[in-house]
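To whoever picks this up:

The nightly regression suite flagged Amidohydrolase as changed. Nothing in the input moved, so I suspect the structure step. Input below, exactly as stored in the fixture:
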Amino acid sequence: MQTTAYIIEQLAGLPGVKVEYGVDVLGINTGVLATIGTGQKPVVGLRADIDALPITEETNADYQSLHSGVMHACGHDGHTAMLIGVIHRLSEMYEAGQIRGTVKCLFQPAEETEDSYGKTGAQYVLQSNALDDVESLIALHLDPEIPLGEVKLKAGTVMANVDTFSITISGTGGHGAYPEQTVDPIWLSSIVLPALYSLPARKISPLEPAVLSVCEIKGGASTNVIPSTVTIRGTMRTYSQEARKSLANELALVLSTVKGLGGSYELKLHHGEPALYNDHTIVSIFEEAIRAVEPNVIIHNDSYGMGGEDFSHLTKKIPGAMMFLGAKDLTKPNTSLHQPRFTIDEKALVLGMEALICATEKMLLKGGNVNDT
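Regenerated output under the current build:
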């Protein structure tokens, strides 16, 4: 709520800017929607995520988090700052009669986490109908691994489908001295694990990006007691729907071997964010915009990796694109997203703000014909 209150404070009273927030507007308690323009088409959308992460900051910077155990380790504070700057500029343009159409700026919460219903912030915003009239959508993400003046920008699928699994393998516990009297779920797990790790390499084409990672194993509480259950939790990442479906099917087949060895299992599979798809036309506009702002920019036409991004929920409904903006601080040790020493070169914020403004102007000029080609 503090971040939402700060955003509202920064936008209060700006000419031509309508500020809305609350569950009745966005379907979720936090977050802000700022609208600038005539209310007429074309309607262009900009999105910044606003979450912090449960990570203790270790940057030793003057501006580091004041809240113990919480920091902006994914650049969302930078995304928020850039969009606030964009709105101030758009307000000035509106006063000067330079806005032809409407711009909706979404400060979106809950990008990083799902609630008990398995939903992220983007899904609630879509359900709220707040973006129903938006015809095209753009977003930036800071990247601390490439330097200022470089970006990652690619059309098509650029980030992964995100699926998570929770497996409970059950057997019959007993005394560690008499394993023959048990059905040992730890032993069963030791057979299952190598098969799980082999799935991306042996069941998915090497031309298809696919990852399966086991991230948590729990079982047993004593050195001489074989437990009755073991839980295994992890994630699967894919780019295509075919690979996504195949990994899920193969996961269930691997687990079926447990029954043949006298045990049983329960599999809970949750389909999270879909793969992020960048619209070709909007990527072209983004490229024109970043080159206009920084003529010497280096554009890496590469996929963004196997991470997930709930912006993908929005771009399944609205043609959109996200660009990764180089922000590596060359004066400090290398870092990456979600690390306690995450930091950026703050000059990237000015470049990103200008790129967003330029792209917005181009999209408004293009009108309602922004769609994939």
